[in-house]
Structures are given as structure tokens and as C-alpha cells.
Amino acid sequence: MRPIIEVKNFTKKYGDFIAVDDISFTVEEGSVFAFLGPNGAGKSTTINTLCTIFEKTSGTLLIEGKDVSTQKDEVRASIGVVFQDSTLDSKMTIEENLKMHCVFYNIPKNEVEERMHFVLTLVDLLNERKKLVGALSGGMKRRVEIARGLIHYPKVLFLDEPTTGLDPQTRAHIWEYILKLQKERNITIFLTTHYMEEAEICNKIAIIDGGKIVAHDTPYALKKEFTKDKAYINAKNEAELETLLEKHKLEFVKKKGYYKVDAENIHQLLQVLSLQKDNITDIEIKKGTFNDVFIEITGKTIREDA
Ligand SMILES: Nc1ncnc2c1ncn2[C@@H]1O[C@H](COP(=O)(O)OP(=O)(O)OP(=O)(O)O)[C@@H](O)[C@H]1O
């Protein structure tokens, strides 16, 4: 797959303050890419620069090979943007909002109807098109924003926290639309999120902290590198279990009523379990979570206040 977003040695300073410090990464065409980081890490600065809103200090940022600093109009034609704060006009209908966007993008009048039909079908809002935006639920508004972000048929869609503030069911729906766009339309999705379980659905993740990219890989590879599986074991005779764990050199922590045991060396663990068949009363193996990855890499939790 070819890279559709290429960022090389990008630095952004606000006065003397370095907000983004010499970062480089690429995003493959047709992939879903998550950009994560704690507060103030440099996410918005990077997205806004990619979307031609901010000027870079140095480096090269290309979308479909077009330079975001010198080919702004071409880049804008290639991207759709859905930011956190709604910019829909709540006094207008869904249809009117979309039409206004078509004017903004100089979409030929004879194509407007077909495009509206296409994007509203994608987000399941075709039958609601005459409704006033002000009367819609938060989830529906977000879907209108996604439809609007797509009406000029961009190759890349930027979504800044597309599901923040929505209930779990609506979040799941928004994700259905996002993955549909990727699968059926080969649209590249570049998103930020605070929800770790959402980051795990993405093809690639870059974690930015203090203006630097500190990790960039698939969720699977990051989990493999930065987390350990753990076994939670209850035993009748704890001293007996403890002696065997020590003998087999399995790291463990004694908690109230159970043992938390390193489950990376599965053969050693199985050996202990088979020897302790009559002693063990309960066992559960837990995989590392993406939250563990984030904490391991950044030393912080991602903010959950959203
Ligand atoms: N206009 C500005 N002038 C000075 N400093 C700024 C400006 N905009 C952002 N910064 C600083 O640059 C750093 C990166 O900010 P940025 O908004 O890109 O982070 P972020 O990762 O998007 O954070 P958040 O998750 O809180 O939105 C922060 O320390 C911020 O205070």
C-alpha cells in the first residue's frame, strides 16, 4: 500500500516553545490511523497543520504527494475534516447544511443531488434529510458532520475525537460508518480518540508525547511489546502454590485472596498448574490492554474526562 500522508521532520514552534519536535511518520492509503497522546502532546497542532489551518515551522507534510504549505487548495480538495466542535447551522435542515458545503467546494449543481444521496445513505440519514439540525441527537449530528466531510469525495478524512460525548451504543454506530468508509470506499481515516478500545480497532497507532512520536505500530505489535499477560490464581493452600511459583521462577505478586502471576512463560505456568490441580480453586488469564500500553509508554493515563 502506498503512503497517502507523509510527514517528515515536522517541527512546530509557538514563539520559543517547541510544541511538535521533529516528528516523522506515514499513513498508508485506505487504512484507519489513530493519533493518540495525553493533553498538550501536540495532536491538534499536527492535525491542524496537516489540514492546512496552521503553518509549520519546518519539515515536509504531504497528502497524496501535495504539500500542505504550498498546495493548500489541492490538499483541501483531498481531505475532509470533522472537528470536535460542531460547525453545522442548527437553524437549517440536514440537506441545507450539505448544500451550503457544496457551494463552498464549488461542486457542480447537477452533481449535488447525487452526492447528497450518496453521503446520506452512507450514514443512514437519507430519510431524515428534511429535519432541522437543531432537533437532532448528538449522534445524528456527528453523522451529519461525517456526511458533510465526505461530500466533496475526499481521499482522507480527519476525525478529531469523533465519538467523544456519545453514549456507547451511538459510538458503536459511528464506528460502523467509519469502518464502512474504509472497506467500501478505501477512504483513509486519520483520527484522534480518548477511548483506548477504539484505538485498538485501528490498523496503525502513533503515540505522541511531549511533541515527539514515542511509538508507532499496529495495536497488536504495541501490545506484544509493552504489555504482559497475567494469570489470576486462587489456591486453598497459598504457601504451597507460592513455593512452586518460586521454584519455577514465575514472577508473582500476592494480592488479597489471589496471586497475580506473570503468564508470559506459558509452559512454566502450565507445569505449575498441572502440579497444583487439587490446590487451585480458580484461574483467569488476562491479556494486557491498550490502556496498559499507553501508561507504559507515556507514564500517564489518557484523559477520560471527555
Ligand atoms: N497558539 C499557541 N500558543 C502557544 N502554545 C500553544 C498554542 N497552541 C498550543 N500550544 C501548546 O502546544 C502544546 C501542544 O498543544 P496541542 O493543542 O497541539 O496538544 P494536544 O495534544 O492537541 O492536546 P489536547 O489533547 O489537550 O487537545 C501544548 O503545550 C499547548 O499548550
TrEMBL record:
Listed SMART domains: AAA
Entry's Gene Ontology cellular component terms: plasma membrane
Example GO biological process: doxorubicin transport
Main location: membrane
Pfam families recorded: ABC_tran, DrrA1-3_C
Compartments where located: Cell membrane
Domain of life the protein comes from: Bacteria
InterPro entries: AAA+_ATPase, ABC_transporter-like_ATP-bd, ABC_transporter-like_CS, ABC_transporter_ATP-binding, DrrA, DrrA1/2-like_C, P-loop_NTPase
Record-annotated ABC transporter domain positions: 5-235
GO molecular function annotations of the record: ATP binding; ATP hydrolysis activity
Alphabetical list of PANTHER family matching this protein: ABC TRANSPORTER ATP-BINDING PROTEIN, ABC TRANSPORTER, ATP-BINDING PROTEIN
Record's protein name: ABC-2 type transport system ATP-binding protein
Lineage, opening ranks: Bacteria, Bacillati, Bacillota, Clostridia, Peptostreptococcales
